[in-house]
Design a protein that fits this description.
- By secondary structure, the protein is an alpha+beta fold.
- It folds into three domains: 73 residues; 57 residues, Winged helix-like DNA-binding domain superfamily/Winged helix DNA-binding domain (Arc Repressor Mutant, subunit A); 55 residues.
- Helix content is 51%, strand content 12%.
- The chain has eleven helices and seven strands.
- The strands form three sheets. A three-stranded antiparallel β-sheet has the order 1-3-2. A two-stranded antiparallel ribbon has the order 4-5. A two-stranded antiparallel sheet has the order 6-7.
- Helix 9 crosses helix 10.
- The protein is globular, with a radius of gyration of 21 Å.
- The C terminus is likely disordered.
Length: 224
């Protein structure tokens, strides 16, 4: 029998983008869970922050997008490891804080329970701006700067609302018909290069006006 070593797990993680515990046990010659986790301590890896942490991937900085997220199909990983640490980083790095909806679009999972716990533990702060809760840096100086920036964004959005014509609405809805369930960010990316320009602000206005986030949650129905 081949001696067990962390190298066997490294080779498995190099060979596949995502693996599960049973595959690691097999690679380590039918090892127990305890043995697998003992060897994992010597390997650079991340567990998925959804699917109850069932999936594992190699911790490779080149894999993550600009938000520090790596997704494989419906499985999501963060450079930070767990969901709470990821939310804290995204909120604290943001120049204008984050809303619950914005975080859910980035992370592709529900975040309300985590946010509530983080507010309770004072890991984040929260303020209501223009009728929406904004999650903010726990430090008062950083928080004040985020609130100023958020106010500027709200003012810019007022102009965007005026610029959202019926033609813009139609273009956004056409994207959703072609790509059911797309989030606002995905729609904005697909409309990149459109003339005249349709920005993320415009798309966000359309999503809010017609409650399209809720449609995206349930997936848009196919036409008959």
């Amino acid at each position: 029998m081949t001696a067990r070593s962390p190298q066997q797990l490294i080779e498995l993680l190099d060979a596949k983008p995502v693996i599960v515990l049973e595959e690691m046990q097999k690679a380590l010659n039918s090892a127990s869970r305890a043995t697998v986790f003992r060897h994992l301590m010597k390997v650079s890896y991340r567990r998925s922050y959804n699917h109850n942490g069932k999936y594992y991937t190699k911790h490779d900085l080149a894999r993550y997008d600009r938000h520090g997220i790596f997704s494989y199909k419906s499985i999501h990983f963060s450079c930070d490891g767990n969901l709470v640490s990821t939310i804290a980083r995204l909120v604290c790095e943001s120049s204008a804080g984050q809303t619950q909806r914005e975080l859910q679009e980035l992370l592709k999972v529900r975040v309300q329970t985590s946010l509530t716990a983080m507010i309770h533990d004072k890991k984040l702060a929260r303020a209501k701006v223009a009728g929406h809760f904004i999650y903010l840096h726990p430090d008062s100086k950083n928080r004040e700067a985020q609130l100023i920036k958020r106010s500027e964004i709200i003012e810019e959005r007022k102009f965007a609302i005026e610029a959202v014509t019926d033609a813009v609405v139609i273009e956004v809805l056409l994207i959703l018909i072609r790509h059911p369930g797309s989030k606002a960010g995905e729609v904005a990316r697909r409309l990149k290069g459109h003339s005249p320009p349709i920005t993320m602000q415009h798309v966000r206005v359309v999503f809010d006006r017609y409650n399209l986030d809720d449609v995206g949650e349930k997936k848009m129905p196919s036409g008959r």
